[in-house]
Amino acid sequence: MSIPLERPDIEEETQSETEVKEPPKYKVLLHNDDYTTMEFVVHVLKTVFNKQEEEAIQIMLSVHRNGSGVCGIYTAEVAETKVARVSHLAKNEGYPLKCTMEEV
């Protein structure tokens, strides 16, 4: 009696069970207000989000003109950390800068 070495039906089940899904991504947004200075927003974008000067200015202008701007897209944990860091920096400087995250 011989035992077949390959069983395609079992192999298919194993592959589908072990398929790994990408974690959900979140965009981090800054929201415009009437008190936070443009300079501080650029500073936040450079220090928290590692943006170069030119890109930080473009995002800041988007926040100013459109009411909000996307700072980056991250996993949930990273996005939460960035939102908390922005909120902490703004509070320490006395600004009401609002930073949120939304699932992409």
Give keywords.
three-stranded antiparallel sheet, 104 residues, single chain, Ribosomal Protein L30, Chain: A, alpha+beta
List the helices and strands and how they pair.
Layout: H1 8-17, E1 25-31, H2 38-47, H3 53-66, E2 68-75, H4 76-93, E3 98-103
Antiparallel strand pairs: 1-2, 1-3
Count of folded domains: 1
Return the string of H and E elements: HEHHEHE
* Strand order in space, largest sheet: 2-1-3
CATH class: Alpha Beta
Q: Work out the helix count.
A: 4
Rg computed from alpha carbons, rounded to a whole number of angstroms: 22 Å
CATH architecture: 2-Layer Sandwich
Uncertain residue segments: none
**Percentage of residues in strands:** 15-25%
Mean pLDDT value: 91
CATH topology, which one?
Ribosomal Protein L30, Chain: A
The backbone outline, from C-alpha atoms, is elongated
CATH superfamily: Ribosomal protein L7/L12, C-terminal domain/Adaptor protein ClpS
Helix content: 40-55%
Strand count, sense and barrel status of the largest sheet are: 3 strands, antiparallel
